[in-house]
Amino acid sequence: MSGPFGPTPVVRMVMVSSMAGPMTMNRVIHAAVRRDLGRLESALATAPDGDRARARQLQVAYANLHDQLKHHHEGEDTHVFPFLATVEGATELVEVMETEHQAMADALAGAQTAMDTYASTGSAGDAHAAREAILTAHEVVERHLHHEENDLEPLLLPHLETPEWKAVEKQLRPASLTESGRFMAWVQDGMPDAERAYLRSAIPTPVTFLLSKLAGRSYHRDVAPAWQPG
Question: Are 181 and 215 in contact (CB under 8 A)?
Fold first, then answer.
């Protein structure tokens, strides 16, 4: 399982620009989440009526996004938030974050139900309803991602080299090679230049390539085709 701040045991930070602030693996993951939500919104807006094959393809793509977010936030709930609860000034923020996680879980579950309905019919009407559910989820998710990047990360930054955080990092390592590969394939699919530069600085390129292409084969087979031109 990929941890909330990356699939490797070391969390490194690099300044992308004075405007963007420090890049983190957390932000790399957030960029992939935003990318897929936008892709789904566009695909559902132009979905042909009655095309069940296309509907099932988008259902699979959403299920992958939902799974990646679930792992991401479970790691935060289980390991990162308890650590932050010991940081001075973070207690109230952690409580807010936990509430936001529940709101996201509810919105994402609603989107899952809408996507499942659309997959069963392929109708334009259900595609529209699914898009509305995705838009709602996107709004809820974006509120949390923005809050996390602007308020949580600055509190965490001074602690990244401490033994206590290193112990947290050990808990965030991938559970299996397959899950690590699927994550790496997903996060790199259409990755913007800033995020790709950070990834190359944090993880050796041969490692990301092998994980993505070999261990991540299921992503390339089952999910990536949803985003390729027909």
Answer: yes
Domain limits of the chain? Answer: 14-227
Give the start-end residues of each E strand in the chain.
14-17, 21-23
- CA dist., res. 90 & res. 100, Å (int): 15
Taking 3-state DSSP, the helix, strand and coil percentages for the chain, each rounded to the nearest 5, stand at 75, 5, 20
Contact 95, 77 (CB under 8 A): no
Answer whether residue 21 shows pLDDT above 90.
no
Is 14-227 in CATH node 1.20.120? yes
The confidence score (pLDDT) of residue 18 equals 31
How far apart are the C-alpha atoms of 1 and 72, rounded to whole Å?
Answer: 8
Q: Chain centroid to CA 66: how far?
A: 8
DSSP string, 119-175: HHH--HHHHHHHHHHHHHHHHHHHHHHHHIIIIIHHHHGGGTTSHHHHHHHHHTS-S
